[in-house]
Amino acid sequence: MKRLLNIELQKLLLNKTSKVLIIISFILPFFVILLSSFKINFFGLFTIELGEYGIFNFPLIWHITTFFAAFFKIFFAVVVVSMVSNEYSYKTLKQNLIDGLSKKEFILSKFYTIVFFSLISTVLIFFITISIGLYYSSIDEFSIIIKGTEFILAYFVKLLGFFSFCLFLGMLLRKSAFALAFLFIEYILEWFIYWGVYEAFDNSTEKAEMVKNFLPLESMYNLINQPIQRAIMMYSPEKVDFAYDYAVHWYEILIVLAWTGIFIFLSYRLLKNRDL
Amino acid sequence: MSEILSIDNLTKKYGYLTAVSNLSFTINKGNVYGILGPNGSGKSTTLGIVLNVVNRTSGEFKWFDGTVSTHEALKKVGAIIERPNFYPYMSAYDNLKLVCKIKGVSYEKIDEKLEIVGLIERKNSPFRTFSLGMKQRLAIASALLNDPEILILDEPTNGLDPQGIHQIRTLIKQIASEGTTILLASHLLDEVEKVCSHVVVLRKGEKLYSGRVDEMVSSFGFFELRTEKTTELVKLLQADAAFNKVTELDGLVTAFLEQPMDASDFNKMMYEKGIVLSHLVKRKPSLEEQFLQLTDSTNPTKN
C-alpha cells in the first residue's frame, strides 16, 4: 500500500498544476474559515464578528465548517480527473503496466491517494473546528464538544465518494474536460430523474425525493445538509415550519460508501477490459 | 536452455478483424529474436498481449515457465513499445525513479543506466525538453533499470534520424553482446539481420516461419550471371533441372538453385557449353529477399 501511494504521490506532487490545486483545495478552505472567525474591522466604520452570532458554538460549528469546506473539494476533483486523463494522454498508463504495475494496483494507487488526501483534509478540519470552537464557546464539557463530530465522519465519506466518482468518470471518458462536464450533466440528470419519478407516481414529492436520495450526487449532498436553516432556527425556535432533518444518518453514509465501492470496482472493470 | 516466454495458440480479434491468429512460439534464454512482418501484421498486438496491455481473445502465454503472474514477471522484463512514454513534467531522473518504484529496484541503478545511454548530463532536465533520440535512449535506460532477463523492443528506431538510429543500434548490439535475451520487433530487415539469430515471421496475424535466421528459406542460394550470349544462357538454364527459377533483368541473369552446386563447377560446365561468363557470383538470399519470398509466395489460404 505504501509503495502504491508513494508512486501516485510522486506523479502528483512533481506536477505544478496538481500541486497548486491540492494546496488550494486543502489549505484555502481552512484559511477562509479561520479568517471568518476573526473580528473583521471595516475601515474603522463597523466590525463584524461572526462568532457573536453563536455560529461558532458547539455543536453547530461542526455542521457549519464541514458544509462550507466541502465546497472546495471541486479543486481536488480536477486533480483526480486529470491524474487519470494525464495517464491516457501521456500514454504512461500503458508504460506503467508494461513496467510491471498490475491494472488492479494502478486503480488502487489512485484510490489510496484519494483516501490519503480525504483523510488529511478531514484531520485538518477537525483541528481547525475544535480550535475555533474552543475559542468562541464557553462550553468546555467534553460530551458537548464531541456531540456533532458525526459531521466530521460525514465530511470524510462525502469527499471519498465524490473523488471516487471523479476517478470513475476520468477512467470512463479519458479527457478531463469531458469528465468535469459530465459531473455537471449528472447534476441535471438527477433533477430529471426526480421530475420523472414525480410525474410517474401521481406527483408524489415523497417518492421522488426517496429515489433521488439514492443517486450519487444527491446522496453525497445529503450527508451534510445546509446549516443555514439550522442556524436561523437556533435564533427563532418558534418557526416550526423551518424544521428539517439535518442529521447524519447511518443509511446516508452507507449509500455513499456503496457508491464509492461501485465506482472503484467499475473503474477497475473498465481498465481490465480495455485494450490500450 | 531455459524458457523465458512461451506463446501457445494466441488469438486476438478486434471485432471482425483478426489481428493475431493461433500464434505459437517460444523464446529461450540467451538468443536474440526478431519478429518480422509488414505493418499491421500483428507484431505490436502480440507484444501488447504478453505485456499485459492488450486482452487476448483466446490462447495462452507463459512467462518464465508460468510460475509467476504476468505483472510480477514484467518486473523482470524491460520493454519499449512504439514511442517513449514518460511524464513530460518530470526530469529524466524522476521518471526513472518512478520506474524503480514500480519495479521495486534500488535507485542506485539510475545513474549507472543513464551513463550507459549517455544522458547523465541531462538527468535533471524535464523529459519534455528532450529530442526524440534522447527520449528513445531514456526509454532504453528505463528498460535496463532492472537488469532484465529479456529486453523487448518494438520498432526502436522508428522516426529517428540516421544518427539516432545508429546510436540505438550500437546500444542494442552492445546489450546483446552482454548476453541479454532480446526480442526485437521490426519491419526493417537489415536491423533484424544485423542483430538477430532467430526470427518469427508474421503476416496478417499468422506465423509464416519461426526458427534460425539462416534456415529461414530452404535455399541452396543463387547465381548472378552476365554473358554476351544472354538468351542462350537463359535457354540453357531453363532446360537444366538443377535450377528452379531463372530471371533476366538488364542482362543480369539470376538463377535459383534446386540442388547444391559449386560456383567453379558451374563455371566449368558453362565454359564447356561454349558460354563465357563475364560475371559470376554465388549468393545466399539476404534476409530481405527471403522475407519477401516468404510473404509473397505463401498463398493466403486460411482466410
List the helices and strands and how they pair.
The complex is a heterodimer of chains A (276) and B (303).
Chain A: H1 2-13, H2 16-37, E1 40-42, E2 46-48, H3 60-69, H4 73-89, H5 92-98, H6 103-136, H7 142-145, H8 150-173, H9 176-200, H10 205-212, H11 216-223, H12 228-235, H13 250-273
Antiparallel strand pairs in A: 1-2
Helix pairs in contact in A: 1-6, 2-4, 2-6, 3-6, 3-8, 4-8, 6-8, 6-13, 8-9, 8-11, 8-13, 9-10, 11-13
Chain B: E1 3-14, E2 17-28, E3 32-36, H1 43-50, E4 58-63, H2 70-73, E5 77-80, H3 92-103, H4 108-116, H5 132-144, E6 150-154, H6 162-177, E7 181-186, H7 189-195, E8 198-203, E9 206-212, E10 222-227, H8 230-239, E11 243-249, E12 252-257, H9 263-272, E13 277-283, H10 287-297
Parallel strand pairs in B: 3-7, 3-8, 5-6, 6-7
Antiparallel strand pairs in B: 1-2, 1-4, 8-9, 10-12, 10-13, 11-12
Helix pairs in contact in B: 4-5
Structural summary, described in words:
The complex is a heterodimer of chains A (276) and B (303). By secondary structure, chain A is mainly alpha-helical. Chain A has one domain. Helices cover 74% and strands 2% of the residues of chain A. Chain A contains 13 helices and 2 strands, in the order H-H-E-E-H-H-H-H-H-H-H-H-H-H-H. In chain A, a hairpin with a 3-residue loop joins strand 1 and strand 2 (46-48). In chain A, helix 8 (150-173) packs antiparallel against helix 11, helix 8 (150-173) runs parallel beside helix 13 (250-273) and helix 11 (216-223) runs antiparallel to helix 13 (250-273). Chain A is globular, with a radius of gyration of 21 Å. Chain A starts with a helix and ends with a helix. Chain B has 303 residues and is an alpha/beta fold. Chain B has 2 domains: 3-84 and 145-215, 3-Layer(aba) Sandwich (Rossmann fold), CATH 3.40.50.300; 222-283. Helix content of chain B is 33%, strand content 29%. Chain B has helices spanning 43-50, 70-73, 92-103, 108-116, 132-144, 162-177, 189-195, 230-239, 263-272, 287-297; strands spanning 3-14, 17-28, 32-36, 58-63, 77-80, 150-154, 181-186, 198-203, 206-212, 222-227, 243-249, 252-257, 277-283. Chain B has a 6-stranded mixed beta sheet, sandwiched between helices. In chain B, a hairpin with a 2-residue loop joins strand 1 (3-14) and strand 2. In chain B, helix 4 (108-116) packs across helix 5 (132-144). The longest helix of chain B is centred in the middle third of the chain and has 16 residues, at 162-177. Chain B is elongated, with a radius of gyration of 24 Å. Chain B starts with a strand and ends in a 6-residue tail after the last helix. The chains are: A mainly alpha (276), B alpha/beta (303). The interface between A and B is medium-sized, with 28 and 33 residues.
